[in-house]
Specification:
Layout lengths: L6 H10 L1 H9 L5 H26 L12 H25 L6 H24 L5 H27 L4 H25 L11
Helix pairs in contact: 1-2, 2-6, 3-4, 3-5, 4-5, 4-7, 5-6, 6-7
C-alpha cells in the first residue's frame, strides 16, 4: 500500500485535474475497510452539516417526507451510493473497463469528500444576491459532475468521456432502482416512514 500522497494536495487537484487526482488516489490502494470507513465518515459529516445548517438558519419543517430525519437521509444516501457504485463497476466491466467494486467505491467515497468541500462553499455563497447564488449552485453541480465522470474514466481506463458518461448514467439508474427497492422493502413509501 502506497501512502506518500499529500491528502491536501490531492483534494485541490481533484478540482482542477480530476483524472490525475483519481490516479493518485488509486495509488493508495486502500482496503475495503479503509474505503468504507471513508465513505461512512463522509456520509455522517455531510448529514451533520446539512441538518445542522437547517437547524440554525432554516425552518424546522424545511425537509418534509423521506428527508425529514437525518437517519433517513443518511440511509438514503448510503443505499443510493452503494447501489450506484455496484452499477458503475458492473457496467464498466461489461464495457471492458478495468475498475473493480473496491476501486470504484473508493473513488466515489473520495468524491464525497470533495463534494463536502463544495457543500461548505455553497453555504458561504448564501450571503450573495439570489441570482448569483443560483449561478454558483449550478456551477458547483456541473463541476461535481465533471469530476465524477473523470473519476470513472480513470478507474475504468476508458480514455473516452462519452463512454464514461454513459456508464455513470446507467450506474446511477441502478442506484435509483436499489433505492426504490430499499424504500419498498422497508415500507417507507407510506405510513411505515414514521416508524423508521
Amino acid at each position: 500500500m502506497t501512502s506518500n500522497v499529500n491528502i491536501q494536495q490531492l483534494f485541490w487537484q481533484s478540482f482542477v485535474e480530476p483524472k490525475a487526482a483519481a490516479k493518485n488516489f488509486l495509488a493508495l490502494d486502500l482496503s475495503y475497510d479503509a474505503v468504507f470507513s471513508l465513505f461512512f465518515s463522509t456520509v455522517c459529516a455531510s448529514t451533520v452539516l446539512i441538518f445542522g445548517f437547517d437547524a440554525l438558519f432554516q425552518n424546522a419543517q424545511a425537509r418534509p417526507g423521506l428527508l425529514e430525519s437525518p437517519w433517513q437521509f443518511a440511509a438514503i444516501v448510503t443505499v443510493l451510493t452503494l447501489s450506484s457504485a455496484v452499477g458503475i463497476a458492473w457496467i464498466g466491466q461489461k464495457l471492458s473497463g478495468q475498475g473493480t467494486l473496491r476501486t470504484v467505491m473508493g473513488l466515489i467515497a473520495w468524491l464525497q469528500v470533495v463534494q463536502l468541500g463544495m457543500q461548505v462553499v455553497s453555504y458561504f455563497t448564501l450571503i450573495l444576491p439570489s441570482i448569483l447564488v443560483t449561478f454558483v449552485q449550478f456551477g458547483l453541480i456541473g463541476w461535481s459532475f465533471w469530476i465524477f465522470i473523470a473519476f470513472i474514466d480513470e478507474v475504468h481506463k476508458f480514455e473516452n468521456m462519452m463512454k464514461s458518461t454513459m456508464v455513470a448514467f446507467l450506474g446511477t439508474i441502478i442506484g435509483m432502482l436499489g433505492l426504490f427497492f430499499m424504500l419498498g422493502f422497508f415500507g417507507l413509501f407510506g405510513g411505515g416512514i414514521n416508524g423508521f
